[in-house]
Design brief:
Elements lengths: L17 E5 L3 H14 L4 E5 L2 H8 L6 E5 L7 H10 L8 E4 L4
Amino acid sequence: MRGGCGMTDTVGREMNPKILVVDDDDNTREIIRDIIELIQPDADVRTAASNREAFQCLEEFLPDLITTDIVRAGGDGYEFLTELRSRVKTRPIPVVAIRTKS
């Protein structure tokens, strides 16, 4: 990990952060992924283009952080957040909600 705040497990070993990026726009999704990987090269970044894809991903991948576009096709970001918070397993995951303009 580069300098700054690193994540550690209970024994003090550094952990690779897990991040899920949800956005219907291919370019925006890849830009966000690239920025995260530039800042945190060892991050495990997964992407989803819709609410359906995001929840399928969450069945096998429990991220440390989720970024989601609020206004998008393939399911509204507010609907995604509501469903995310209704599930015990995903409720505690921090979310960064973004809004991009085309």
